[in-house]
Give the backbone structure.
Amino acid sequence: MKKVTWILTVLLALSLVLSACGSPAAPEISTEGEIKQFRVAVVMPSAINDLAFSQSMYDSLVMIQEEMGGSEYFDFVYSDGMFVVDDAAAAIRDYASQGFDLVIAHGSQYGSSLQEIAPDFPETAFAWGTTLETFGQPNIFAYEAASHEGGFVNGTLAASLTKTGVVGVVGPIETGDAKLYVDGFVAGVKATNPDVTVNVNYIGSFSDVALAAEAANTHIAAGADVMAGTAQMVVGAIGVAKENGVLWIGTQANQTSLAPEIVVANQVYRWDVVVREIIELIGQGTLGGKSFVITLENGGEVMEYNPDFALPAEVKALADSTVQGIIDGSITITLP
Amino acid sequence: MISDLFSTTVLIGILASGIRLATPYLYAAIGETFSQRSGVLNLGVEGQMLLGSFAAFYVTLITGNMWLGLLAAILVGAAMGLAMSFVTVNLHAKQGISGIGFYLFGLGMSDLLFQKLVGTVETVRGFPRLSIPVLSGIPGVGDIFFNQNFLVYGAYLLVPVAWFVLNKTTLGLKIRSVGENPDAADSLGVSVNRIRYFTIILGGIFSGIAGASLSIALLNVFQQNMTSGLGFIAVALVYFGGWRPLGVLGGALLFSMVNSLQLWVQVLGIPIPSELAVMMPYILTIIVLVAVASKIRAPSALTKPFEREG
């Protein structure tokens, strides 16, 4: 029996090591006294290359790193694929005890863990999203996206492009950022053309790619010729859209590379807008207690169009004026 | 609006979706049926699926040949099955725990390889839709049954084959006797270990194909943790189906049809909260499991390692 225990231990250890391997090792702490290196650690629920929520944060941090002059000045490490909240909590605590300047818990499911951990590390700044809740903690920042704004613009595009008069939306779980985006999308469609039908389908999962694909099949069978969706499992829906020549409008990250033939445009989250402000505040000695919203106005949400898609000029003009209208306040979005 | 559910478009939609959704469950659960009938509970199905799924995706991406991709999934599944056999049959490890170990290994390894070898979500050209001549032209029925891809057909053909092998062949008799009474089987000259090796490896192969059916046939994409618990549902379906291929088929279809039904319920705007709608397949599964539990007996030697007396 001893042998069995040994083999199992090795196997378990191996699997744990492997599941942790997605993230690079912690960086060596800079010994050069000259350079003030800002160090960030991020914990994310899905993969950094999910073409959605986690990727939007990863890409933003890469952008900041380039801006600040490379890893000597801005270094970040990450743990991705942390869909198990307990594992994420362990990682957050780990990073905090390693003395990072900022620890980001990128997922609203990490809130209660953070609430417990943050008071133990009063010298470390934490940030989490998507939410506005800082728990009244002086070392917790919160951030969220006004995703209904980009959703509204995407809805305008969808309503202008549909020929069948049916638009389909694939959602994960009817809550938080996803619900806000979908509600904004529906409002955008209705404001542009009240006769267009929007069918919405929440599949009850952020990871079930197969079910997302069938949700898309359902929309197509119901007559949809333009689709949209949010969260990382939509890659399944995009595949179905591509196969059936149905247009796709993306959100969170730029999803064009998956199906350049049918992706019209993407609302992309630029969290760097938030992270930049947080870095500045930390430099001034403020470690938390503030919340941020990325919007079309502050450049945290940007529309990225697929250059290979022949978008009619008048539709593009309508989308541009909608963005402008939301920014200057002449368009108000009424959510259901 | 409820009446909309009974329109032809909707019925065809529900059935065609259900047929596709059931495909990975069928491969995985039929494979698991073989290993459980021989007395081995393999909880590593999900991990085998993930690695098989990645192997199929990666080889198809590199070579452009989906058949090589399928072969890769089969080999990876077989290798995982071989390792599982060694741990449970020779080393007598607790089947439940070692299965979870294999699951975690598959989960971590598939993600690691994906990050290192591919890096970003990409699509591949997998098995195309294969319309069966004549039959696919039948209105309604054609779209549901005869306008799917090769791996979908394979899953349904597997069910009668599995039934035949388990119930009508000497090999099937040996598998069943090893699962019911390994001591008696052993005394009659049946090699318990060899049979279990065979069924666990076969299970691994089918789990690998189940993974491939997602990454190179139904979705043509790979993503971290793509199976999202599908492998565990497949294990539950084996119990659901009473360890019989036809029962497994019934369970897989029921679960998948209710799942595709709930998608339509939302699309048709039937006023049920989405949270309730997505619960439907699971609630139904629990009800049927409870109803079935009292009537069907598990293989007597399930989860028990075999050690020759004396």
Observations:
- The first strand of chain B starts at residue 129 and ends at 131.
